[in-house]
């Protein structure tokens, strides 16, 4: 893929990039990119650590299920079936 690009074309491209962005901005590009990558890696590591801590921590309790087996949003109703027999019929 790069076999068609000569050294002269790369030099011309470098000159154009220098003219567009300036040397000061290009000097700051390396450290800025490095610090952004370092922050991303540390955030990913912290996220992985917190996930593994939650799985192995005995203090973490799943409060989504109640003792009777229903969740917080569920309501158990005791249906006798009397309403279901006449609900769908039209005479």
From TrEMBL:
Transmembrane segments: 6-23
Topology within the bilayer: Single-pass membrane protein
Principal place of residence: membrane
Record localization: Cell membrane
Residue spans of biased composition, Basic and acidic residues class: 52-91
Gene Ontology, cellular component aspect: TAT protein transport complex
Region span, Disordered: 43-91
UniProt GO MF annotations: protein transmembrane transporter activity
Pfam families: TatA_B_E
InterPro entries: TatA/B/E, TatA/E
UniProt cross-references to Gene3D superfamilies, sorted A to Z: 1.20.5.3310
Domain of life: Bacteria
Keywords associated with the record: Cell membrane, Membrane, Protein transport, Translocation, Transmembrane, Transmembrane helix, Transport
GO biological process annotation, one example: protein transport by the Tat complex
Subunit and partners: The Tat system comprises two distinct complexes: a TatABC complex, containing multiple copies of TatA, TatB and TatC subunits, and a separate TatA complex, containing only TatA subunits. Substrates initially bind to the TatABC complex, which probably triggers association of the separate TatA complex to form the active translocon.
HAMAP family tied to this protein: TatA_E (MF_00236)
Function as written in the Swiss-Prot or TrEMBL entry: Part of the twin-arginine translocation (Tat) system that transports large folded proteins containing a characteristic twin-arginine motif in their signal peptide across membranes. TatA could form the protein-conducting channel of the Tat system.
Family per record: Belongs to the TatA/E family.
Listed name of the protein: Sec-independent protein translocase protein TatA
Gene name as annotated: tatA
């Amino acid at each position: 893929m790069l076999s068609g690009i000569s050294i002269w074309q790369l030099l011309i491209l470098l000159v154009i990039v220098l003219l567009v962005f300036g040397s000061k901005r290009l000097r700051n590009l390396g450290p800025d990119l490095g610090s952004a990558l370092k922050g991303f890696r540390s955030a990913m590591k912290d996220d992985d650590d917190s996930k593994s801590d939650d799985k192995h921590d005995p203090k973490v309790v799943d409060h989504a299920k109640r003792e009777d087996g229903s969740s917080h949003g569920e309501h158990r109703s005791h249906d006798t079936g009397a309403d279901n027999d006449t609900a769908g019929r039209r005479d």
